[in-house]
C-alpha cells in the first residue's frame, strides 16, 4: 500500500500501519457499497486486485490474528502466533500476495474438528490454514459491501451492526400485531448441503471477475482432512468455521428472503392491501431470519401457515436445502416458541385481562448454562484457590446475563444465582472436608453467605437489572454509509 510499510514486529509500527490500512479499506468499501446500491444490476469486473492489495491483506491479517482461533493451526501445522514469531508478518504477507498475483495460490484442505452440540450430536468444524484464512478475510472485505446492498432487512445473522436481539425484537413486535401463527424453520444440515452451482450462480450476479469467482469456488472445493486422516471432497456446502462461510450462506439463503418479499401479503404489501387481504380471508406474513434459523409469522389460519411452509420447502430445494420435518414446527403464539435462545410467548398479564407477548430465557438455554457451571466447578481442582474458580465462572455468568438482560429475565437470574451458589459452596465443602459451615462462611463469606476470595467476589446474577431492547427495524445503519 502506498505510504505504508509492513513490519515484522507486533509493536507500534505495525499498529500504525494497520490503522492506516483500515482507513483505506473502509474508504474503498464505502465506494463499493455506494456503487452497488446505485446500480442493483451492476457486476463488478475488477475485484481481484483489491483482494491482493497490501492494505486489504494487512487488515485481513489483523482480523485473523485477533480472532480466538489464532492459536489453532491448519493442516500445515502453523498458527498465527508461529508465523508472527518465526516467519514475520511482512514476509508472510509478501509471499501470499505474490502467490495470489502469479496464480500459484491454492487453498489447502481444512482440518476437521468435531465439537459436541445439543442433543449429544457432533458438529463438524473446518480449520483452514492461516494463509487460507487471510485470503478468505480479504475476499470478505471486498465482497461483503457489495452483497450487503442486496440483503433485505429481515436478515440479521452474520451481518455488520446487526444482532440476535434485533431479530427477537422483530418477532415480538410482529406477534403483538396479530401475526399469531408461526412457522419455526429448521434447515437440515444447512452449511453442509448448499448446492455449489446454485450458490456460484448467485455470486455471479454481482461478481464478474473470473479470478475472484475461481478463488471462491476453490475454497468451496478445498476438501476436509478428517480426524481419521482421510481426505474427503466437498461437493456441497460451505465448511463451518471458515471466515467466508457466513457471507456465502447469507448469499444462498437470501433466496428465501427475496421470495417472501415478492409474494402478495409479504413485507412489500401496503397497509391498505393487507387489510383488503384480511377481509377476503387471505393471509399476510413476514419473515425474520438469523443465518439458518428463521421464523415466518402469519396472520391467517394454520392451513395458511402449512401452505407457506410447503412453498418455502420448494424454494430452498433450488439451493439443495431441505427442511427438517421433525424440527420445522407450526405453533401459535399463545403456545410459544423458542428462537435464538429466547422463549417468546403471549399470555395474560398478572392482575389484568389484557394479553402481551413476553420474551424470557428458554429452558434449553438455562439448562445449558447450568450444565456449564457444573462442569467448571467439577473440572476445577480443589487444590486451587477460590479466586481461580471465580475467575472462570464470572465471565461466563456476565456474558449469559448480558445476552438475556433485555427481557423478562429477573426470576431466571435469581434462579441462576442460586444454582451457582450451591455449586461453589459444594466445591468449597470438597476443598475443606473437615471444616463446618461456620468455618467456611467465616473464611470465604466474611460471616455472610456470598463467597469471595480477597478482592474477587462471585458475580450475583440476581443483582443484574433487566432492560427493554429498543426495536430498530430498518433504521440499522450500515458501517459504510457514514464512511462514504
UniProtKB/TrEMBL annotation:
Keyword presence, Nucleotidyltransferase: yes
Top-level taxon in the UniProt lineage: Bacteria
Stored SUPFAM superfamilies: DNA/RNA polymerases
Gene Ontology MF terms in the entry: RNA-directed DNA polymerase activity
Keyword annotations: Nucleotidyltransferase, RNA-directed DNA polymerase, Transferase
The Reverse transcriptase domain, residue ranges: 96-344
Protein name per its UniProtKB record: Group II intron reverse transcriptase/maturase
Organism: Nonomuraea maheshkhaliensis
